[in-house]
Amino acid sequence: MTTATPTTGTIAVEMPEPFTPEWGRIDGVTVTGRTVEIDPAVYFFRYQDPTWLVVDWDLLARDLLPLRDTDSRTVEQAALEFVKEHGRITDDPAEVLRIGHKVAAHVFSDKHLTDPGLSHVDAGHMRMLREATTLMALNKVRIDGSIANVGPCWFFPVATSVVFGLDDEQGMALDELYHGGFFNEYRRIDSILAHAALGGRLVHGCSAAADMKGGAVVPYGADMDRFRADLEGMSDTWMNRIRAHAA
After folding, report:
1. Is residue 246 predicted with pLDDT exceeding 90?
2. What percent of the chain is predicted at pLDDT more than 90?
3. What is residue 32's three-state secondary structure?
4. What is the mean pLDDT of the chain?
5. Which pLDDT score is estimated for 1?
6. Strands (DSSP E) along 49-198, which ranges?
7. Residue 114: exposed, middle, or buried by beta-carbon count in 10 A (0-12, 13-18, 19+)?
8. How far apart are CA 187 and CA 218, in angstroms?
9. What are phi and psi of 126, to 5 degrees?
10. From CA 146, how far away is CA 228, in angstroms rounded?
11. Structural contact between residues 204 and 179, judged by C-beta atoms closer than 8 angstroms
12. pTM for the structure as a whole
């Protein structure tokens, strides 16, 4: 594995598309057109380990995304093997955000608006999910299940409610979409393969039902009991801090 040159101070990255300026309602975030800046000292609730396991997106898009289950190898197995073979450690958060945007743009592409069963979803929902999940890429869960890095976009339904002016019902509907309504079997498989670019699999912070606790990309094999205990011990306090940003 190789390590990229570290970024110190403010995290600044130019995205392929403009971000919603109202992300500036979240402490530590500034958006100017396609440029997103994050002050880690202000943005993060916890920032203990600013290194991330990533896989180059172009390689993954070419060699992993086309795969599907067979009777001898599941996509989860393929994703884990791909991360083991091609994963590398970076301490450049801007690189993580760029990869995170590619993952989000693929998973939450507007092309899905014509999919059966998504007539209640529009381009606005897709944009909210793309932008929030891009910023979620900076979160980190260790293999022992402890939460190392967590910012407001871990709890993306609360953060997007602040940014896009959603009421409680709309925020919960977005969470329900992300928690289960969007990920039918076809899109679930695609999500598993795409999130290998961020070194793991998408794990919802919610339990049986959507409850605004978002989630993160978690390494394969992480201790889910410790993950749950760590999240439950902090989530209400963190979510209330995000809600306080509402105009």
Report:
1. no
2. 74
3. strand
4. 91
5. 33
6. 52-54, 88-90, 140-141, 147-150
7. exposed
8. 18
9. -65, -40
10. 9
11. yes
12. 0.93
